[in-house]
Amino acid sequence: MTEAALPAAADLALGREMHALAARLFDLPRSLTGDGVRATLAAVAELVPLEVHEVPTGTPVLDWTVPKEWNLRRAVLRGPDGSVVADSARRNLEVVGYSVPVRGRFPLAALRPRLHSLPEKPDLVPYRTSYWKEDWGYCLPHRVAAALPEGEYEVEIDATLADGHLTYGELLLPGESTGEVLVSCHVCHPSLANDNLSGLAVTAFLARELMARERRWSWRFLWAPGTIGAITWLARNGAAAARVRAGLVAANLGDPGAFHFKRSRRGDTEIDRAVEVALRDLGAPHAIEEFVPFGYDERQYCSPGFDLPVGLLSRTPWGRFPEYHTSADDLGFLDPEALAGSLAAYRAVAEVLEGNRRYRNLFPKGEPQLGRRGLYRALGGDDRGRERELALLWVLNQSDGGPDLLAIARRSGLPFARLAEAAAALAAAGLIAPLEG
Fold first, then answer.
1. Is 81 buried (19+), middle (13-18) or exposed (0-12) by CB count in 10 A?
2. Which residues, including other chains, have CB under 8 Å from residue 386's CB and lie 6 or more apart?
3. What pLDDT does 2 receive?
């Protein structure tokens, strides 16, 4: 991180709190459905007042159907000598997610196709699921899988896969406007710290901060299982979706990599411009990437029938860090300083969205005299206060009812906060007037 982007001491304390929340939730057996998701949402509800939704198995949601509910008690694989080869009590990843219940003895040859490992990462356990096809299996380090002796293995997957519910959490913070900012993250990955819990922690702490302030926009937070959760929310909330003016999907926010922002499908909406300016002003290393219809739940919100202005703000994107979807994505990989910086970035985006407005200059012919209104230096000829005064002049010049403050920030190169401060001063002096919308 650059010095300008280093978290403040207060944010570092919040980073440690977010890490502690992740540590508390790390071992819960989360999946698309089940009691692990409910327990996770109950922990979030201790920070913010969630509304928890239960959608029954079999409910049609767009082109999908809510699946059966899966609950795992324990999955153990024992070798011919009775030694434990894989055990979900040791690590949730050691069973394939959504494995059907199985009990029996299998020769190694029959078991091999159900054992998943990573030859290129022989010490790590992969994350594997079988959500949409009833199946079962185990995940283990390749060095263990490759050394398994011949013989009969005892399989015990104590789980239920039956009609139940899909569970997701939601929080709406009403603002002056009914227009909404959507912040969404997934809650379905077990024992993956960066790819799941970092987004959950950052969004929960952001929601708690926004609860404590006045808001121009209404803010809606979703904590839902990946893909099917967003699809279910969209299927049930067409009116709310139509009110979304900007949105972010939060994921992979706890590694030390640079920020990456994937634009919305439209590419130059308010959220696209807000993130670009907020990251620029923070001085944080970052990359802006174009939209692709692959990744996390932004692809659901940006599907053409909805085309919501939603982007993805992460640190290192999915699949680009070696720990991704493996047992190495653990609490040791999750960096409290990175979490703190991510919360600061999301807060900066929120400040830009809340402060962005269009204005009309009420004295557009020539520059109004700022000195007699106390807005300009009494003495000219030095650089003290130059940026503040330049911001005043930029806002006056561009406020013809067209460009908003974000457009002015991009064109001028001045910090958004400086322009928002200038606009407030000019409005208080009766020189500009905010426009609705």
1. exposed
2. none
3. 47
Q: How far apart are the first and last CA of the chain?
A: 36
The bridge status of strand 60-61 relative to strand 84-87 is unpaired
Averaged pLDDT, 254-266: 98
pLDDT at 7: 66
Beta carbons within 10 angstroms of residue 198's beta carbon = 30
What are the angstrom distances between the C-alpha of 178 and each of 38, 181, 240, 243?
29, 10, 9, 7
Measured CA to CA in angstroms, residue 394 lies from 25, 196, 416 at distances of: 48, 42, 12
CB 184 within 8 A of CB 199: no
The pLDDT of residue 436: 82
Say if residues 418 and 391 touch (Cβ distance below 8 Å): yes
Report CA-CA distances (Å) from 283 to 4, 258, 348: 6, 11, 11
Confidence grade of residue 377 (pLDDT, cut at 50, 70, 90): low
127 φ, ψ to 5°?
-100, 120
Tell me the pTM.
Answer: 0.94
Do 167 and 70 touch, CB atoms closer than 8 A? no
CA distances (Å), origin 106, targets 81, 110, 114, 185, 387: 14, 6, 11, 39, 74
- Span of 50-59, 179-188, 270-279, 379-388 with lowest mean pLDDT: 379-388
- State mean pLDDT over 167-189: 97
At 299, the amino acid letter reads R
User: Which pLDDT score, from 0 to 100, does residue 192 have?
Assistant: 97
Residue type, 168: Y
Alpha helices in 85-168 (DSSP H): 108-111, 142-146
User: What gap in Å lies between CA 45 and CA 223, rounded to an integer?
Assistant: 11
**Which of 352, 332, 186, 183 has the alpha carbon at shortest distance from 254?**
332
State how far the Cα of 289 lies from the Cα of 292, in Å rounded to an integer. Answer: 9
Alpha-carbon torsion 20, 22, 25, 29, what sign? negative
